[in-house]
Design goal:
Layout (H helix, E strand, L loop, with lengths): L17 E7 L2 E3 L6 E2 L1 H4 L10 E6 L2 E7 L8 E3 L9 H18 L11 E3 L6 E3 L5 E2 L4 E10 L2 E7 L10 E4 L6 H13 L2 E13 L4 E12 L9 E8 L13 H16 L1
Parallel strand pairs: 1-5, 10-14
Antiparallel strand pairs: 1-2, 1-3, 2-6, 4-5, 7-8, 8-9, 10-11, 10-12, 11-15, 13-14
């Protein structure tokens, strides 16, 4: 996507080339089953003018995100429900819109003096109206790692999200840590396993709520699996030839780590 440009500030200023992405809290509002709205179709929905945040450009359209606070009967979907079927381009736009709106929603007031904030002309910074302190959109670095033991991989099922999927271990980078140190700590804390030979593979933006996932592979070193009950419902070693239900490789970094390692092992046979 192209870089953000100066944003229009009101719906009536928008041209026909603009498409809007509407959220109510964390749910996407649908327009006859579609994710994107024309400016004219939105004017009657907003009880008061919403803030318009620049998302980017794609396919000849400029995309803006807005959050509607009023209740209505519009169909909506959670972003998480789209992870296993939507086009990559749509998911990228929707994910970025959600992250920007979450940033805007949680920084309406200055953390220094408590006064209201306002968007700058480009929609990239929230500025305190009194002390001029600037708040930029933030991301939270996380690690996600696939622990391998030859033709077996360590997968776990989350105790917090009962999706039925087994996936890679993951966790937030803490202050003072490198991502590699986080990989070591999280694997040890969540499963009791010690690892070695940590190597970076790839990254992915992850909008729950606003994370940058750094993907790693690591080799098993020693230890027996002892799941941390508040984080892990179940964990175990799974043969690459007999994997449980795992995330999609088309839209999730977890799926790509799993399938990428599986292909690399098959190539060695």
């Amino acid at each position: 996507m192209a870089s953000q440009s100066t944003r229009p500030t009101r719906l009536e200023q928008l041209t026909d080339s603009v498409r809007l992405i509407l959220f109510r809290q964390d749910r996407i509002l649908l327009n006859a089953g579609e994710f994107f709205w024309s400016p004219r179709s939105v004017e009657s929905l907003a009880a008061k003018p919403p803030a318009l945040l620049s998302v980017g450009e794609a396919g000849g359209h400029s995309y803006l995100a807005a959050e509607l606070e009023n209740e209505n009967d519009l169909e909506s979907r959670s972003l998480r429900s789209l992870l296993f079927g939507e086009a990559d381009t749509d998911l990228e736009l929707l994910s970025k819109a959600r992250q920007l709106l979450n940033w805007h929603r949680t920084h309406r007031f200055c953390g220094i003096c408590g006064c209201p904030t306002a968007l700058d002309d480009n929609g990239k910074i929230l500025i305190c109206e009194k002390c001029s302190y600037q708040f930029f959109p933030r991301i939270n670095p996380c690690v996600i790692m696939l622990v391998t033991r030859g033709e077996e991989i360590l997968l776990a099922r989350s105790a917090r999200f009962r999706s039925g999927y087994y996936s890679c271990l993951a966790g937030f980078v803490e202050i003072g840590e490198t991502p590699e140190q986080t990989v070591l700590r999280e694997v040890r804390e969540e499963t009791g396993v010690e690892i070695e030979n940590i190597r970076y593979v790839e990254s992915q933006s992850w909008p729950f709520p606003s994370q940058l996932m750094l993907g790693f592979l690591a080799d098993y070193k020693t230890g027996e699996i002892v799941p941390e009950p508040e984080e892990i419902e179940d964990a175990g070693w799974f043969a690459l030839s007999d994997l449980p239900l795992t995330p999609s490789a088309s839209v999730t970094i977890a799926g790509r780590l799993i399938q990428g390692y599986r292909r690399s092992m098959l190539d060695q046979l």
